[in-house]
Amino acid sequence: MDLKDLYRDVILDHNKNPRNFGKLDPCDTSADGHNPLCGDRLTLTLRLEGDRVSDIRFDGKGCAISTASASLMTEAVKGLDARAIAALRGLVHDTLTASGDSAVPHGLGKLAALAGVREYPARVKCASLCWHTLNAALAHRDGTAAVSTE
Ligand code: ZN
């Protein structure tokens, strides 16, 4: 199995069986994200202990890439503090925007599957929507934040 097949299988799996799907009620912070280019919409709800994400869920409707990306993200960030999340977000951003043949950064775990998305530049916003939304949820902890990738 080559790497592209592996990436595709991870995306398909997380789209079909999204992890951490639903809403936390009550939650400590939440945010809504919208990608008008594709129509992806998602809502993140988080529980925090200090600046550590103790639990996170996502809800909404979107294309396979946005759903899989959000599912992978919730698995990756649960238990991390804001600093570790910012570092991971940077790695994901680099991965999504790198040229097609450059190496995938280390430390991504399953998120490396998102490297498959960079062959489809129009879909990068589908994959990054959840990360923008997470950023908004962590930055505006005292209410509901909304982001649009437009
Ligand atoms: Zn999409």
Largest sheet: 4 strands, mixed
Q: Helix tally? A: 4
Report how far the terminal alpha carbons are from each other. 37 Å
Q: Estimate the helix proportion, in percent.
A: 40-55%
Can you tell me the CATH architecture?
Answer: Alpha-Beta Complex
Q: Keywords, please?
A:
globular; 4 helices; single chain; binds zinc ion; 4-stranded mixed β-sheet; alpha+beta
Structural write-up:
- The relative contact order is 0.22.
- A 4-stranded mixed sheet has the order 3-2-1-4, covered by helices on one side.
- The termini are far apart.
- By secondary structure, the protein is an alpha+beta fold.
- It contains 4 helices and 4 strands.
- The chain has a single domain (3-148), classed as Sufe protein. Chain: A, CATH 3.90.1010.10.
- The chain has helices at residues 3-16, 64-77, 82-97, 124-139; strands at residues 29-35, 40-49, 52-61, 144-148.
- α2 (64-77) packs across α4 (124-139) and α3 (82-97) runs antiparallel to α4 (124-139).
- The model has no long low-confidence stretch (mean pLDDT 91).
- It is globular.
- The structure holds zinc ion.
- Zinc ion binds at residues 35, 38, 40, 62-63, 65-66, 126.
Provide a short characterization of the protein structure:
The chain has 150 residues and is an alpha+beta fold. The protein has helices at residues 3-16, 64-77, 82-97, 124-139; strands spanning 29-35, 40-49, 52-61, 144-148. Helix 1 (3-16) packs across helix 2 (64-77), helix 2 crosses helix 4 and helix 3 runs antiparallel to helix 4 (124-139).
